[in-house]
Design a protein that fits this description.
Elements (H helix, E strand, L loop, with lengths): L28 H10 L14 E2 L11 H8 L9 H14 L3 E5 L2 H12 L5 E4 L4 H9 L3 E4 L20 H11 L3 E7 L12 H14 L3 E4 L3 H11 L8 H11 L2 E5 H4 L5 E5 L2 H7 L2 H5 L10 H13 L3 H4 L1 H15 L12 E5 H4 L9 H13 L1 E2 L1 E3 L19 E5 L7 H16 L7 E5 L5 H4 L1 E4 L3 H13 L4
Parallel strand pairs: 1-10, 3-4, 3-5, 5-6, 6-7
Antiparallel strand pairs: 2-8, 7-8, 9-12, 11-12, 13-14
Helix pairs in contact: 1-17, 2-13, 3-13, 4-5, 6-7, 7-9, 15-18, 17-18
This protein binds ligand F0G.
Length: 480
């Protein structure tokens, strides 16, 4: 929430209080260095006990509300036909204003089902921007991902409030030539890989019109919709008078299919797909019992489903969905003032460091964003996530795709961190920026073929990590 302070400085103010806490551990520098080696310089392979502040992701780790936790206790358990499922179904359909719901165990499970039904070999899937798991499912089936992002999408420093917009001219032009080879258009809310950047309702209206003209299904990835809803309300003049629910309904009505990761959207776990097009629903439905679980749980536990239902209702509360973007704004603006290169304007999901500017001398093929993640973990116990070349895949000839942007994402799971923890992160990142010349690259020890960033093993290309440790000891002493 934004409340005015006497001195006029911007301080995000929490509209919740903390009633259950988890003790954190601040591992020693020696242990961090050892843990980094054991994890093969891959942030996904670190153990939680070795981490101080886990800023890897907001997926499945947002703090739940008292209402969510209490709903979990009343869950009705049954393989088929639980009361919990029907409560969830009603909530989801009311939320999105749609007729049919299919449950799935998480976002990528929805992507799997959608890809199986809609992707044709050699055909195009058009997007405002891709996401790792979405693209992997499409390319696995021989589909081709085409992106028509806005002209500012890849400019890390920008004032454009809607960098997630789709380029409508390019979309129109492409469809006028390739309509028969296009499977669908996908809009991703709170565009993850370019720094949690939203699109405007106006842009979605434009995309919808073009899709209608060419009779192409419009699919919405609503995983990060809460942030996008907040930004539309905050930044889009024509929507300032609308409630979050009204904006949501306008968005939903423009889309033929909506899917989401409930690990993000409703501060819970799970996922789902909604539509009002009966034919689409009928195509997808048989795949749920085949891959996920019976139609009334789709791989989720009943507790998760209860938490999801309450979490979705809470997503309509602006005080709740503003917490993430406001904390992120605080972190982004603090670093920006210190001259540290960050993605602007502040988006949703987390604070994103612009690694091409942070480490201009580390080549993309040496994975600078993962190297920076390793460096930050080493000097602070903070875990971030690489969003750059390492997160891309090699093509069929083994050639490495270089990412458009190299980002280190420091996710701020909602309601999890305090402002003093964010200030600590800012302080250590600033220190690292002063010592950026010490940071080198990484090289593969073991490189998996698909989604390699999840479990590949790397090592530093030189002794730069030892030099960084020495510098930290020199500046902060042994009791850093
Ligand atoms: N779509 C978007 C936009 C996402 O951000 C994610 C997950 C998914 C789909 C897949 O959902 O994880 O439930 O299977 N993003 C996580 C992240 C992994 O850390 O950003 P999932």
């Amino acid at each position: 929430m934004k409340i005015k302070t006497f001195k006029g400085s911007f301080t995000p103010l929490e509209l919740h209080k903390v009633r259950i806490v988890q003790k954190l551990n601040y591992p020693t520098l020696e242990r961090r260095a050892e843990a980094l080696r054991e994890a093969g310089n891959n942030m996904f392979l670190l153990k939680n006990d070795d981490i101080f502040l886990d800023m890897l992701t907001d997926s499945g780790v947002n703090a739940m509300s008292d209402n969510q936790v209490s709903a979990m206790l009343r869950a009705d358990d049954s393989y088929a036909g639980s009361a919990t499922y029907f409560r969830l179904e009603k909530t989801v359909l009311d939320f999105f204003n749609k007729d049919y719901f299919l449950p799935a165990h998480q976002g990528r499970a929805c992507e799997h089902i959608l890809a199986k039904v809609f992707v044709n070999k050699g055909h195009y899937s058009i997007m405002n921007y891709h996401f790792t798991t979405t693209k992997a499912h499409i390319t696995e089936l021989g589909g081709i991902v085409v992106q028509f992002y806005s002209k500012d999408a890849l400019k890390t420093k920008s004032n454009n409030p809607f960098k997630g917009n789709m380029d409508l001219e390019k979309l129109e032009d492409f469809l006028s030539k390739n309509r028969d080879l296009t499977d669908f258009v996908r809009m991703e809310a709170g565009t993850n890989l370019i720094g949690g950047q939203p699109w405007s309702l106006e842009n979605l209206v434009g995309v919808h019109k073009i899709c209608r003209n060419y009779n192409i299904p419009l699919i919405l990835d609503a995983s990060l919709l809460a942030d996008n809803l907040y930004f539309i309300k905050e930044r889009e003049e024509a929507c300032k008078h609308l409630s979050i629910k009204q904006i949501l309904t306008r968005i939903s009505d423009l889309c033929d299919i909506i899917y989401f990761s409930a690990r993000k959207l409703s501060f819970s776990r799970g996922g789902g797909i909604v539509t009002s097009v009966k034919e689409f629903h009928e195509f997808m439905k048989p795949l749920v019992p085949l891959y996920e679980g019976f139609l009334t749980y789709g791989g989720m536990s009943v507790r998760e489903m209860e938490a999801m239902a309450v979490g979705l209702e809470e997503t309509l509360d602006e005080d709740i969905i503003s917490q993430g973007p406001l904390f992120i704004k605080y972190m982004v603006e603090s670093l920006d003032k210190l001259g540290v290169p960050v993605v602007t304007p502040a988006g949703g999901l987390g604070c994103h460091l612009d690694v091409k500017k942070f480490l201009p001398d580390v080549d993309s093929h040496s994975y600078p964003a993962e190297a920076l993640a390793c460096a930050l973990y080493l000097i602070s116990g903070i875990r971030g996530m690489e969003r750059g070349t390492l997160s891309e895949q090699r093509d069929e000839n083994g050639v490495e795709e270089v990412s458009d942007v190299e980002l280190l994402r420091l996710a701020l799971p909602r309601r999890v961190f305090t402002l003093s923890q964010v200030k600590f992160a800012v302080d250590r990142i600033y220190w690292l920026y002063q010592h950026k010349n010490l940071i080198g690259g990484l090289k593969w020890v073991e490189e998996p073929k698909v989604l390699r960033f999840f479990y590949g093993i790397l090592e530093p290309s030189s002794n730069w990590q030892e030099l960084l440790i020495e510098a930290l000891r020199k500046d902060l002493g042994t009791e850093e």
